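Researcher: Here's the sequence for the chain we discussed earlier.
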Amino acid sequence: MKDAIIVRGARQHNLKNLNVRIPRRAVTVITGPSGSGKSSLAFDTVYAEGQRRYVESLSSYARQFLERMEKPDVDSIEGISPAVAIEQRNPTKSSRSTVGTATEIYDYLRLLWARIGRTSCPLCGRELVPDTTESVTDGLLRETPGTRFVVTFPLRTSARVRGKVIEENLRAQGFLRIVVDGDIVHLDDVASRGLDLATVPELLVVVDRLTIEQAQRGRIAESVGTAFREGDGDCIAVLVESTGTRLLRFTERFECPNDGYRAPAPSPQLFSFNNPRGACETCNGFGAVLTYDESLIVPAPERSLRDGAIDPWTKPRYDGRRRTLAEFCRKEGIPFDAPWRALSAAHRETLLRRTGRGFRGIIPFLTDLEEKRYKQYIRVFLRQYQTAQECGTCHGSRLKPEALNVRIAGRSIAEVASLTIDRLLAWMDEVQLTPFEAEVAAHILREARSRTSFLGDVGLTYLTLQRATRTLSGGEAQRITLANSLGASLVDTLYVLDEPSIGLHARDLHRLLSLLMRLRETGNTVLMVEHDLDAIRASDHMIELGPGSGERGGYIVFEGPVADAAKSPLTGQYLTGAMTLPVPTKRRPVNRQRLTLTGAREHNLQDVDIVIPLGTLTVVTGVSGSGKSTLVHDVLHRALESALTGEHSAKRHLGERVGTFRELRGHEGLDAVVLIDQAPIGRTPRSNPVTYITAYDEIRRIFSQLPAARSKRLAPFHFSFNVKGGRCDKCEGAGYLEVEMVFMADVFVP
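Model: Thanks. This is the structure I predict for it:
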C-alpha cells in the first residue's frame, strides 16, 4: 500500500491544477485564507473521491440507497482510502435522536436492562421472577419425598365451544385425565358424572402422574416443559396429600402473585422510545407534548379584543369568528375594548376554553382544527401557538411505566440515562451485580464503558444520554462523531475534518488533539481544515493554500512537514512568532448605555445575570459546555427578539422552547437584533450571494429601465431567473438540466 495519497491536477472550484501529497497514517492540516480552496481540496476533491470509490465498490442495489457523490474535477488520486467526513455542523433535526442513540451507548444499556434487569410490581413492590422448567423441577423436588402429584396446565374454554368438542380435542392430543375441583377425573367418566367441560370454572388437563423422587427428575422436567408449552406459559402441580389436594401454580410470565399485575418480558424493544413496545403512549416517545400556550395565543395582552388580542382570529380567513366573538362579548357583558390583561380571570378563561353551544373558545377552536392537520398550512398555523411541555405520564423519560419498573441496582434505565457522562462512567464502574449478572453483563458493560469514555476524552462529560442531539452545537456534534469513529475501531480510513477547533476553549483543545492522535495511532489518516496555531503545531504535515481568496487563491503556498513551516510566507510567520495579531493599545470607551439580562435559567445556566455595554464588542467565553450558546442564542437573542418585535419569540420559531429569564432592561435604544451563526444562509439551489443581499433587485430594476427593455415592455420580473416569464423555460432558471442516473451520480448538463 502506498505511504501517501497523491493528488494530481485538482481543479475543483478555484483550485489551480494542484498536485499534492498527503502522508498516510499521519495528521495533515490544510490552512490558508478564507476562500483559498481549503474545503474544495479536502471535502470536494479528496473526500468526494474516497467516498465515490467506496460506493462504487458496492452492488448496484446497495448504491441506490446511498448518497451519490459527483466525480471531482481532478486528473487522478492514488492511494486513497474509504473516507469519512466530519463537518463542523449539527445535521440532526429529529427530536427523537439523543446523545445516547447517536453514540449507540443507549443501545447497549437497553440490552443490559433486557438481560439482567429486575422487574418489580408497581402496586406492591415485589420482584417479579418468572418460573422456568428447571426452577419448577427444583421446587417440586423440595416437597416431601414420596408425595404423589400430577402436572397439569389450565385449559381456557369458551361457552361457544361445546363440552363434547373439548373432550374430543383432548383425546386427539393424547390427554386422558382432567382435574375438576381438586379431583382427578378420567375423560371416560365425564358423562357419568354429568360434567360439562365448557362450563367448568377452572379446567386442568393432566400431563403426567408422578411421585416426588430424585430419580424422576428428568421425567418431571419433561412434564413441566410440556405443561408450560400447552398451557401458554402456565403450569399447575396438584399435590395429593393426606389432608386433600394442594395446588402449586407456576408461570413463565412476569406476574405478581399478590395482585395479579402482569408485566411484559424485558426485551431491548421495551426500553426503546423509538419502538411502540417501549414508547410512552401519551407523548409517543418524545418526552414532551404540544400544548396551546396562552402567551402565544395572546402575544400582546395590552391589546383589546377589538384590536386583535386573540392572534389566531386576526387572520383574514377567520373574519367570521371575529364577528361571532364580538356578538358573544356583547351578550355576556365582556368588555370588547378593554385590554386583555384588564379582563377578569373568569372572562379570560371563558374566551380561552369555553366549549358550550353557540361559541367555542379559542383553544377548543384550535383543537377542532387538528382534524385537518393533513393540510400543511393548518399544521404550520397550529404550531405557532403550541409549546412543548414535559409529558405528565412519563415525566420526560419517554418510556412506558412497564419499562421504568425494570431496574438494575435500584435504578431504571431512564435514571441512568439522565446521568452526566462522568457520573455514568462512575456508575458503570461501581454498580453492584451478582456473579451471574456480572458474567452476563461483562461484554455489554465493556462496550458501553468504552464508548462512554470516548465522550469523556473529547470533553463532553457534562452531557447526558437523554440530551436531544439537535440541541447540540456544531462543535459538540462533531466531537460526538469523532468519539463514534474511535468506538468503531476502524483502521486505514481517511477522516476529513472541518475546523474541529472552532468553539473550543483552550482547555478543551488538547483533548481534541489527543483524540486525533489516537486516530492516527490506530492506523488512520487524518486530513483537517484548520486555522488554530496549536492545532497546526500538533500536526505532522501542512498544506497551505493561497495566496489570496477566490480567483487569487487555489495555489499551493507551502507543503511539507510542520517542522519546516517557518518557510511558509504567511502561516509560518505566525507559527514562529515573527507576526502576531495586533492588539489595540487603546480600548474604546465603554458606553453608559447597557443591556441587562437577569435570572437566565436554561439547560445548565444557574440564574445568570449579565450586563452588556452597547456600542462595543463583547465576547462571551468559557470552557466547552459552560452555557455560552445557551445564554446568547436561547436566552438573550430570543428575549431581544420578543422585546423588539412585540411578538413572542416562540411564535416566530414554531413553538421552539425559549430560555427563561427574570428581566430584560436597556433594549429601548435598539432597533433590531440579528443572529449570525454557522448555519448556511442559502435554503434553495437558486439562492446566491447577490439575491441573498437583495442587490439583484436593484440590478433588475436598472435593466428594466433601459431603452431596449422599455421598448419591449419588460418589467423587473422579466430579469429574474426565479419567475416564469423571466427564467429559461427549458431549465426553469436552474442553469442546467439534471439527468438522473439512478446507480451513478446524476449528470448536470448546461
